[in-house]
Amino acid sequence: MPSERSADLDDDPRSRIAFVVLEQLCWHMFCCDVILDAFSDVLGDVIGDADPNAIELAECANELRHDLQATYRAATEKRLGFAALSPAENATLTIERAADAGVQSVSNRADAPRCDAPDCSGSALDLGDGSWSGGCLTHVSLTDRDRHQMFNISGDHAKERADFLRYQLNRSTAVALVNWWHDMGGPQHVLEEAIRSETDFP
Ligand SMILES: [Zn+2]
Fold first, then answer.
1. Per residue, what are the HEC states of the chain?
2. Where exactly are the structural domains of the chain?
């Protein structure tokens, strides 16, 4: 069913249909991309064996997904005055946010200040709480060096956790979609019904 947002987008029936279809296309490519990615290990062998060039399918799906999302944003911006995310792109962000929650403790500042020691060109160490040590690895106090090492260790683990969580969330999403499709029996019955209704002459 079309979402309320797409229904509210425009009163013009043609335009409304276009947004409903565009929104669905975003979902289709979201599904293709997530499934191709999550099942790349098992698909890789089969697809690669069948056609070495077909291995680029995943890249094509990913590209088309992003192109469609960008088109949806541009189209809503023209109609509404602001770029709205398609529900499919929102789903992607939900997965990303859940995974990124694992790396929030990692500091992400760009340039470390110079070491306080005279004539030392070393850089101060990140202490992980928004502060820097006064000295570089050579001129730092033992306490600050320990804090820096603890921060590095927890940061590495947080990054690993986030990567693993992202993989797990994408994989769970793909498995759920494949199972859902299987339970629905695919679109075959819809096609048959559509053909029958067009050819079922009295
Ligand atoms: Zn130094």
1. CCCHHHHHHCCCHHHHHHHHHHHHHHHHHHHHHHHHHHCHHHHHHHHHHHCHHHHHHHHHHHHHHHHHHHHHHHHHHHHHCCCCCCHHHHHHHHHHHHHHHHHCCCCCCCCCCECCCCCCCCECCECCCCCECCCCCCCCCHHHHHHHHHHHHHHHHHHHHHHHHHHHHHHHHHHHHHHHHHHHCCCHHHHHHHHHHHHCCC
2. 4-101
